[in-house]
Specification:
Elements (H helix, E strand, L loop, with lengths): L1 H14 L5 H34 L3 H5 L8 H21 L1 H16 L4 H16 L1
Helix pairs in contact: 2-4, 4-5
Protein name: G protein-coupled receptor
InterPro entries: 7TM_GPCR_serpentine_rcpt_Str
Organism: Caenorhabditis tropicalis
Length: 129
């Protein structure tokens, strides 16, 4: 994985000289997002399970009794999908812009108290009719 990543990095460096500056920036962001997405499974899936998978090999040879609580492992495994998506969205600036505009739109569309009061008043009068 490391070999392929380095080879891809150096090949991209050569090829990106042919692109415009915005395209180079976008391609670089995609490369960083790819690196983060490849680190996700290592951090959340491989590293936590390694001690658990190696544990059966240790007790017979060293005569040690080991008892694991594995609830934390399920938590780490469940953190992987959001980490993968959120990491990509935070690295690529185009996604960041869209997310910020969506949040701004959501926050500006919240009804004010005066609007809420007038809606509830009109609902009460329509119930009487």
């Amino acid at each position: 994985m490391l070999y392929c990543g380095l080879k891809m990095h150096f090949n991209m460096k050569k090829e990106l000289k042919k692109f415009s500056a915005p395209q180079r920036r976008l391609q670089r962001q995609f490369f960083y997002a790819l690196v983060v997405q490849s680190l996700g499974p290592t951090i959340f899936l491989v590293l936590p399970t390694t001690p658990i998978l190696l544990t059966p090999l240790i007790p017979p040879s060293m005569e040690i009794k080991i008892s694991w609580q594995t609830g934390w492992l399920y938590t780490l495994i469940e953190l992987y999908p959001p980490f993968d998506s959120i990491g990509f969205m935070l690295i690529v600036t185009e996604y960041k812009k869209v997310i910020k505009s969506q949040i701004a739109t959501f926050m500006s569309n919240k009804p004010s108290q005066s609007t809420t009061a007038s809606i509830s008043t009109s609902l009460r009068t329509s119930d009487r009719i």
